[in-house]
Structures are given as C-alpha cells and as structure tokens.
Amino acid sequence: MEFLDLPSLLSSSGTVRLPGSKSLSNRILLLAALADGETEVRDLLESDDTARMLEALEALGVLVTRLGHHAYRVKGIGGEGAFNGFPNKQLELFLGNAGTAFRPLTAALALAGGEYVLKGVPRMHERPIGDLVDGLRQLGARIDYLENPGFPPLAIHAPAISDVATVSVRGDVSSQFLTGLLMALPLLDRQVTVVVEGELISKPYIEITLAAMARFGVTVQREGWERFTVAAGARYHSPGIIYVEGDASSASYFLAAGLIGGGPVRVEGVGRDSVQGDVAFAEALAKMGARIDMGDNWIEASRPEGGRILAVNMDCNHIPDAAMTLAVVALFADGTTTLSNIASWRVKETDRIAAMAIELRKLGAEVEEGADYLRVTPVPRLQPASIATYDDHRMAMCFSLAAFATPLRILDPGCTAKTFPDYFERLAEVAVVAPVIAIDGPSASGKGTVAARVAAALGWDYLDSGALYRLTALAAQKAGVAWDDEAGVAALAASLDVSFAEGEVCLAGEDVGDAIRSEDISGGASAVAALPAVREALLFRQRAFRVAPGLVADGRDMGSVVFPDARVKVFLTASAEVRAERRYKQLIEKGFSASLDKILQELRTRDERDSQRAVAPLQQNVDAQLLETSNLTIEQAVAQVLAWQQACGADS
Ligand SMILES: Nc1ncnc2c1ncn2[C@@H]1O[C@H](COP(=O)(O)OP(=O)(O)OP(=O)(O)O)[C@@H](O)[C@H]1O
Ligand SMILES: Nc1ccn([C@H]2C[C@H](O)[C@@H](COP(=O)(O)O)O2)c(=O)n1
C-alpha cells in the first residue's frame, strides 16, 4: 500500500489558498445544468467528487466546456415551458463515493423522467438513502433498490408524478436528503412543501443549499427548520458567472495547524462572508485557545504567546466534517475533550467515530467511543504510528496534524483526492519540519562518533541506523532464522523489540551493546541489509527518530533514502587502512582480541557488499558534502559538520 511518512512538525506559519468548496461545487454544477442559459463556474474544486458529478452531467447530455484554471462553462437544459428532463434518458451512472453527487442526482433524475441506474463504490452502497427515496416516492417517483432496501444501487424509472402538495423527509440521518429534495422541486412547476421529520442535523449544509438555489433564482420559504416551501413557477436561471468559495472544511486543517504549531496560518477563499457553516470551526478552535482573525475572504489562526490548547466539551452537530479536525487537536489539549452529537459520522465515507477511535488509540491517546460522541484524553508523549485512512480523505487530512507531536505514517495518502488532491504539498508549505543532518559513510569511518557528538552539541536526537541492522542480524541469529531468509528476517525487523537509552542498546530488554559490535554480527548486519524487504521494514522505524528539535542520523542511505530532504548531507570516509586501524584500536580498547589484517580484509568485503547491493547502496550522492577524515581528528570532523550546519542558516 502507498504511504507517506510525515516527520515531526515543529511550527507553522504562512498562507494557503483553499481549493473550491466541495459542497458548493457539486450543488452549483447541478443547478447550472438544470438552469436556463449558460453558467460560467469559476474556482470549481477539481477533485474525485466533482469529477463524478461532471462525468454524470456530461453523460446525461449536458454540455460542459473546460475553460482551464478551475473554470467551467455549463449549458443548462432548462428553458421556457415544461421541464423535459435530461437529453439522455437511459443511462447507468457510476458516482464513486460522492454523496454530494449521489443524493441530489437521485432526486433530480427521479423527477426528471428517464430510466437510470445509479451506482457507487461498495462503501456508497452501505450509506443510507432510504429517507430520500421515501420522500421522492410521495411525489410519484418510481425507484427500486437493486441490492439492499434503503441503500444504493438504485434503478430509477420515469415517475408518475402525484399532485400532493406536502411531502415529508427525515432530517436526522443526513441533511443531504433534504438538500436533494429541495434542489429537485423546481422541476415540478408547482408549489410543494417539505416537512422535516425529526431534528434536522447539519443545518448549515441546508443554508448552503438555500444560498446556492437563491443564486440561481429560486427562493425557498423556510419556517424554522421544519417546513420548506418551493413556490409554483420557481425556475432556475443562470446567474451568468458564479464563483465557488474556498472549502471551509478543508480550511479546518490549516487553521488547526495555526493553533497547534503557533502560526499564524492564514487561509484564503473563505471568511466572514462565507455561506458555509464550517467557518464556525474557527469559533470552535477559538474555544480551544486559538486566536482567530477574519476578513471578508480570509481567516487566520495562531496560538497566543504562552497560550495552552484547552480541552472542550462541544456539540458538533453544526460542523460534522470539520469536527474531525477537533478530535486531533484534542491530542494537544490540557485535558479530556468530548465531541458530541456527531452520529452522522457513522454514515460518512467510513464509520468515522469507529475509525477515529482506532487510529487515535494507535498514537497512545485514551479514547471513549459512543453512539454519537467521541471522548479523547491525550497523553504527554504520543507514539509514532501507521495511520489507516479507510478511503476517507478527512481521516488522512486531520491525522496529518498529529505530526506536530510525533512522526507518522499516513497510509493511502492519495485518498485526499476526493476533495483536496494536493493537500500534503500545501501542508508542507506552512509547516516547518524537524531538521536532519544525515551522515553516511563506510564502516569504521568514524561517522557514528562524529554524528553522536554533533547531536550532543546541538541538543538533538541521534540515530545509529547501522545498529538497527545489527540488531536485526542478532535477533535472526537468536531466533534461528538464516540471514538470507528475506521474509523471515523482514518479519523480525518489523517487530524488533529494541530500545536505546543512556548508552545502552537493548534487544527484548537485554543489553546487547557489545554483542552487536562483534565481527560475526557485523557480517550478518551487512548481509541482512542487502535484503529489500528488511530495508523496507526498517524504514518507518528510522524515520520515527526524526523528532523535535532535530536529528543527526548516521548510516549508508540516510541522505539518499531515509531522509532525502535532510538539511545537511555528509559523506564521511577515510582510507580502508585508516578505518581498519581505528576499528582495531576500538576492539582492543574494549578488551576484544583482534587481527588488523583480518579486520582490513573484512572491511573491504563489507564495503564491496554495501556499495554493490541493488537497494540503497553505499555511495557518495551528488548532494552530499565529502568529509575525508583520514588526516582529521574527531574534533576537526565534528567542527566541520557543525560549520556546514551553521552555513545553512539554521540554528534549530
Ligand atoms: N577522525 C578520527 N580520527 C581518529 N579516530 C577516529 C576518528 N573518527 C572516529 N574515530 C574512531 O574510530 C573508531 C570507529 O568510529 P565509529 O564507531 O564512530 O565508526 P562508524 O563509521 O560509526 O563505524 P560503523 O558504522 O562500522 O559502526 C572509534 O573508535 C572512533 O573513536
Ligand atoms: N543505513 C544503513 C546503516 C547500516 N547499513 C548496513 C551496513 C553495514 O554492513 C551494517 C552495519 O552498519 P554499521 O553499524 O557498520 O554502520 O548495516 C545499511 O545498509 N544502511
């Protein structure tokens, strides 16, 4: 599976231009298609969900022209006289996992006339749609469930429109049912009132629907949140040019980054004038300690000097999507945070309450999960983890914020394409990562000694990556697994129980600092290091050492593979004879017997294998500085690395 390793993030600041709002994009596309005249839609979100809507409209015979720079021209099918439906009247449509396409299209096609089959990905077929179908049937729609009653896929037939003036729809599962119904009602050309049964959830999304319909000339009469009336003669008219606001839910990740990482982080594309309810996320974040500034078209978040992140008890019914971000902010709070009234999470792209609980626990947090709430208690130190994303864009995006506390692996990061294809690139623009100095070089060159001293001088962490290969070789030997058994050794590497503390290197609790330095294990380490599956298994473990305030790492592929974005890369070497002598002295000082000739011969063999292997071979890369230490003291070598670090203009 694809993954993205996020290093520890130190701080945040900068500005992000938001992609267009998903909710607005898909509503506007459908309304433009149903309207009379041509509509130029600007700043449209380009993502999987909008691609599904665009494909569907084009398949239905709507003329859509791509103008470039997120602009599209849509030739509406509305006009004078009775609505005649879409040009193509018999079609099977695949709508992926796009709820904002599936629900409104179901309603529009059910009343438009024609024979349609609507399908999606397996998860879409688990997301309820029965309440919308029930509402539409009251109007005369003829819809069959092709698999399970109440769920897609659907077969839609030409309707036998009834003359009822009032229909009811449940509002307590998804607000998209009411949205779909309201958007389709102007196709009927008579007055219809929709009565909402149960407490309407996610009301701000209905505000978005009403605002979008109003831009296309249809005003819905609203009595509280219970009754909505579309008048006879209501018709969609193109507004000519329409701009899509930036996505307020996507803004939540950057605003949260502003609070957690200090900020200020500014998002452009939404602001005080936004029609999207998720701008209320900014208020929620303020309750957690953020300083929020807002303009007509921008919002900025930062953490006041010395400010803490505060735990909250919050009803999140009005911001269901953005509230996922709060669950991750809760990891940084000063106590237990409870997010309530979020039952709708269970029927989203995945069961988000369950998924959140599982993944937050992987980081070490204490989590209580209820039918409609989530309670998160943070721990002082989060642990590195591989975060599963459940094909849910918001899981990937909100969990990226945990990188302000620990290195992380995000599985299937491409799932953000649903709403924000270049999310991680934008995040990288406003987040400062923990710096790395990568020191690679051959055996016994002195890179470990130099790296450890540079780390101590800077107050950074130190990673001896060779020790991990040595520990793997020792673990294999102890377990009776041959060093050339790639799958067997890789499995051991993946679950290696090691700890490095106060100069001790422990394997399963036993100090093996000397054992892993024996010539036997040195040979074994070189052998297992040539196995691709072993290198893969140790990759995240090595990256997880990259924590604040910085890391000095030594090995063979620190600068080329493990930390390719390292700030300083050094290739530290010495002649084979000098290295053999250094190793010889080292062994004698530790009380081991040793032969200089044998050490030289073994060093050469190991150099040969480390530099000739297919994966991550030992070599000086073009972007690494050469540090030839044959005639340098340790102090001189350390001073040179520190000078290079300083020359980068870096003091942290
Ligand atoms: N510039 C130097 N001059 C003299 N001795 C050095 C110098 N650099 C390192 N040494 C000594 O060389 C020995 C080997 O160094 P070290 O263990 O750091 O090498 P290494 O490259 O990390 O080895 P390996 O990766 O094979 O474990 C140590 O005893 C160290 O003190
Ligand atoms: N990043 C690394 C680190 C080490 N190895 C291999 C090379 C050596 O043969 C063995 C032991 O390393 P050392 O302790 O001598 O630095 O592990 C590697 O391939 N990649």
Report on the structure:
With 652 residues, the chain is an alpha/beta fold. It has three domains: 3-18 and 249-431, UDP-n-acetylglucosamine1-carboxyvinyl-transferase, Chain (Alpha-beta prism); 22-243, Alpha-beta prism (UDP-n-acetylglucosamine1-carboxyvinyl-transferase, Chain); 436-460 and 549-651, Rossmann fold (3-Layer(aba) Sandwich). 36% of the residues lie in helices and 21% in strands. It has 21 helices and 33 strands. The strands form nine sheets. Strands 27-31-26-32-33 form a five-stranded parallel beta sheet. A hairpin with an 8-residue loop joins β9 and β10. The model has no long low-confidence stretch (mean pLDDT 94). Residues 443, 465-466, 469-470, 525-526, 529, 555-558, 606, 610 line the site of ligand LCLUPRNS. Ligand LCLUPRNS binds at residues 443, 465-466, 469-470, 525-526, 529, 555-558, 606, 610. InterPro entries: Cytidylate_kin, Cytidylate_kinase_dom, Enolpyruvate_Tfrase_dom, Enolpyruvate_Tfrase_sf, EPSP_synthase, EPSP_synthase_CS, P-loop_NTPase, RNA3'P_cycl/enolpyr_Trfase_a/b. Pfam families: Cytidylate_kin, EPSP_synthase. ATP binds at residues 441-449.
